[in-house]
Design goal:
Chain lengths: 543, 363
């Protein structure tokens, strides 16, 4: 089927295409204008912006901890209306089905679940397989697991560590590797309550820094396109900017991605010993080209924090609102679920302002990524409002007027004039994520790319414009029209597939038999277990 | 071999499925009881949405107590693998389902390799005369009891004594327990909703929270039913809610009292019962004005059922995905003795295909 998207304002930074024109789709791919070709279908995009489908690199959309959060908070996500006939379960509050629909309506077509416990890979992929329309991907968590920590302690050769990382990525069908408060979950099991970059995990004698550097090197050496994705130590603590700065410095020339930097943008100045260190961190990011970051923007209102940083979540239990939480010591990281409401008080305002300062003070939109760390800073449904804040100083000033004056007095936000352009938005939410994840087939509108396309009708109300796409195509299927889902389909989970080393598989079999009394078969699964046609799409490692 | 019946008459599966769909379509209050694997659950929930049914586990009471701990209170829990490798004190809370006894025996037969203590002590919380699952090598768990007091009361007394408070009746062997805790690095409490009520589960979590003020401890959830907990997980990601959810209003509505399927049947609210369990062999008590559709591993029609369709046993006749209490997550298993019997999911989808709808099933 040949589709012509006619007369839209095309924003495709990768291919240098900015301006009015046509875009052609043949079946599931973008193609050049066919010579004399007559379209089977024409979409009138006059007055619309045409961009590639958006990519979210860090959003907790599925897996054991997310599901536990759903279980913990049934009162928070009741459905409000009967389902639309064409989209079963899509109005089930906070269901997998709703997740895919809500993302698609905003023009997002690929979302990465950034924290998959390797032992719960099957569970995670089953949830992702029930998220309709969009493609998904996962990052496998390493860095608190006994097998890795033991190898580092025992000075195992780097090739052996790479074999283990490769096996983990392959067997869990992951797209990359994440380390979460490296070593802290293991230390917490031994009753350690705080843990910094140079602290040492008891019983292993291995520092958090050593774990991060080991994994960073392994990921790079294996050619995993996405750099090691790091959730630093001391998340949320006053003074955590020092930790983030030390971690940025530890990149040492190799690629490193720091997740939700806003949660580390905290200094210790002022009478409350809580201040913005955003300018300092932004400057560090600006001058450290091997580092990329995502923000984890806070927006006001009720949410739930979901993290495999079990030590941090344990310490946050007292602030749970409502007053209930789940803390789980897992085989590696485990996790914690703590509901939380961001108020417009001093602290909430400061967190909100720090996130925006980082967005606006980091110069290069190719290295700063648009996230709320869903749902930790805010649900992803807050994205349209966040786009408006980034693209309009006036919108920021209107918001600031209703916030804590004492917090804003310590922030530079009100003085920042920058407003993101649509081109920068297209880079930050399309082109750069595709590059960061190694997804060459998306994030742009060049011939050969998959036809993941978001079309927005121009509107002075940015939130409305970017919150309800006029049209969304996924793999060439028209899935959204006028902000409503028109077609259910099933995306894939994008994965790497490095060949596992046979000696490592034998070693892991022995390890699981000896330590857990279980064969490795208990943790492996065939693709058929997902019960969907072609549940996975393979992405190549760098050669 | 016959695999489907309408009443007592053999028929084709397709016809039985169409008849089941007609019954579902005309029902004013259909209810589903599930005892199936993850994919059977997913298919059943998709059908429940289509016909406006409520669904529950076949033995919903115990599962409901377990889900209520999470929906109402929260918890501190630990993975079974970490329990094996780290628990130097194991406290068995009340009676555990038989299916978990093997794991308890395994804990008794191994030492925690990630603990400096390198040995385990066992305690059992329960009334006088309570017995723990068999431990290896003639070992016995030390009983912590308050005479005939309930499990909740005993846990309350244990918690009070641990905090140095007065109790009306002391817990037996408390000094041994206190001594063990003094040197323990990671005590783990094994619990289930099978024979433990909600208050006891909450009190246990209070005790675990108290222990974590200064040291580490956690609880290992050993579900009353692996199929039940697996279904609860699948239901939660599909609808936002665990079992005892209904679609009577066109969207998922979680109400653990209202959608207690056993209660709905007993109260005469339900007029159609779809029971999905490979292990059904005995007929349900015949209910006046309530039709039964049975999906079961059977070679003959279920007595009193309007429709019976034979299904295979997940993990035996066909591959399956289960909750594994041994790993604390979902596990894929191959067919042990593959047969041509269809899976519950396959039959449910066939039934659903005969229910008129504007959209394809989501799973």
């Amino acid at each position: 089927m040949l589709t012509k998207i006619a007369g839209g304002d095309i924003i495709d930074p990768v291919n240098g295409r900015l301006g009015q024109g046509d875009l052609w789709i043949r079946d599931d791919k973008i193609v050049g204008a066919p010579a004399g070709g007559a379209a089977d279908r024409t979409i009138d995009a006059a007055g619309c912006i045409v961009m590639a489908g958006a990519i979210d690199i860090h959003s907790h959309i599925g897996g054991g901890n997310v599901n536990t959060a759903r279980l913990l908070l049934p009162e928070q996500h009741a459905a409000h209306q009967a389902r639309p006939a064409a989209t079963p379960l899509s109005n089930a509050g906070w269901s997998t089905f709703q997740t895919g629909c809500l993302y698609a309506k905003m023009g997002f077509t690929t979302v990465v679940e950034p924290a998959m416990s390797p032992g719960a890979a099957l569970h995670t992929h089953l949830e992702l397989a029930d998220i309709p329309i969009i493609d998904k991907a996962t990052l496998a968590i390493l860095g608190n697991d006994d097998f890795l920590l033991s190898m580092i302690r025992d000075d195992a050769p780097s090739t052996m560590i790479e074999d283990y990382v490769a096996w983990t990525v392959a067997s869990t069908r992951a797209l990359g590797v994440k380390v979460i408060n490296a070593g802290a979950a293991a230390a917490f099991k031994e009753n350690v309550r705080t843990f910094s970059l140079d602290d040492v995990v008891p019983s292993y004698g291995v520092s958090s820094r050593k774990i991060v550097k080991t994994l960073q090197a392994a990921v790079d050496s294996l050619g995993v396109p996405h750099p090691l994705h790091v959730h630093c130590n001391n998340l949320g603590s006053p003074g955590s900017a020092d930790t983030a700065a030390s971690t940025i410095a530890a990149a040492e020339g190799l690629p490193l991605h720091l997740a939700h930097l806003q949660f580390y943008g905290y200094g210790t100045e002022g009478k409350r010993k809580f201040s913005s260190a955003a300018a300092r961190l932004a400057e560090l990011v600006n001058t450290t080209p091997e580092v990329t970051i995502d923000i984890g923007q806070v927006m006001f209102g009720q949410t739930v924090t979901i993290s495999s940083d079990v030590m941090r979540q344990f310490s946050a239990r007292g602030s749970a609102s409502p007053k209930k939480s789940v803390i789980h010591d897992g085989d590696g990281n485990g996790g914690g679920i703590v509901p939380y409401s961001y108020g417009k008080d001093f602290y909430g305002t400061m967190q909100w302002a720090i996130g925006l300062e980082l967005f606006l003070l980091i110069d290069d939109p190719w290295r700063v990524f648009f996230t709320t760390d869903h749902p930790n800073g805010a649900p992803f449904t807050a994205y349209p409002a966040l786009f408006a804040l980034l693209m309009s100083r006036e919108a920021r000033n209107e918001m600031i007027a209703g916030l804590s004056k004492s917090a804003m007095a310590l922030s530079t936000l009100a003085a920042i004039e920058r407003e993101y352009t649509f081109e920068e938005i297209a880079i930050m939410t399309r082109a750069a994520p595709a590059k960061l994840l190694g997804l060459t087939d998306r994030g742009h509108l060049g011939a050969g790319a998959i036809a993941d396309i978001a079309i927005y009708r121009r509107n002075g109300n940015i939130a409305k414009m970017l919150g309800q796409a006029a049209y969304v195509f996924k793999d060439g299927d028209l899935v959204v029209q006028d902000g409503e889902i028109t077609h259910y389909r099933w995306g894939k989970a994008l994965r790497l597939n490095p060949s596992p080393d046979k000696a490592m598989v034998r070693r892991l079999e022995d390890y699981h038999q000896q330590r857990y009394g279980l064969s490795l078969d208990w943790f492996n699964f065939p693709d058929s277990a997902i019960a969907r046609e072609q549940p996975f799409g393979e992405v190549a490692c760098r050669t | 071999m016959a695999v489907a019946w309408i009443g007592n008459r053999e028929t084709l599966v397709e016809r039985a499925a169409a008849h089941a769909a007609a019954l579902l379509g005309s029902s004013r209050c259909p209810v589903f009881s599930l005892d199936t694997d993850i994919h059977g659950t997913r298919a059943a929930i998709a059908l429940a949405e289509r016909v406006g049914a409520a669904y529950d586990h076949a033995d919903g009471a115990a599962l409901s107590r377990e889900t209520a701990l999470f929906t109402d209170k929260g918890a501190m829990t630990v993975a079974p693998g970490e329990t094996r490798r780290r628990a130097d004190v194991v406290v068995i809370v009340g009676e555990l389902p038989q299916v978990h006894h093997e794991f308890v025996g395994e804990l008794a037969g191994t030492v925690p390799d990630l603990s400096a203590k390198n040995q385990r002590e066992f305690f059992l919380v329960g009334p006088n005369g309570a017995s723990a699952p068999p431990l290896n090598n003639g070992r016995a768990a030390t009983l912590l009891s308050c005479g005939e007091a309930s499990l909740g009361a005993t846990l309350a007394a244990l918690r009070a004594q641990y905090r140095g408070r007065q109790t009306s009746q002391p817990v037996s062997n408390f000094d041994d327990f206190a001594k063990a805790l003094e040197v323990a690095r990671f005590p783990v409490f094994l619990f289930s909703g099978d024979a433990t009520d909600g208050l006891a589960l909450e009190m246990l979590q209070g005790l675990i929270a108290d222990l974590n003020r200064t040291s580490r401890a956690s609880g290992l959830h050993l579900p009353a039913s692996k199929n039940g907990w697996g279904s609860a997980l699948a239901s939660t990601w599909m609808t936002g809610f665990p079992l005892r959810t209904g679609f009577a209003r066109g969207f998922p509505d979680f109400d653990p009292w209202r959608y207690d399927v056993a209660r709905m049947i007993a109260a005469g609210e339900a007029d159609l019962h779809l029971r999905i369990s490979s292990s059904i062999v005995q007929p349900q008590k015949k209910r006046h004005r309530m039709a039964l559709i049975a999906l079961a591993k059977t070679q003959k029609p279920i007595a009193g059922a309007a429709v019976t369709i034979a299904i295979g046993e997940a993990g035996v006749d066909h591959e399956a995905v289960f909750y594994s209490s041994r790993t604390g997550s979902l596990r894929s298993v191959d067919a042990r003795a593959a047969s041509e019997l269809p899976s519950a999911a396959t039959v449910i989808r066939l039934v659903a295909s005969h229910v008129s709808a504007e959209a394809a099933l989501p799973c």
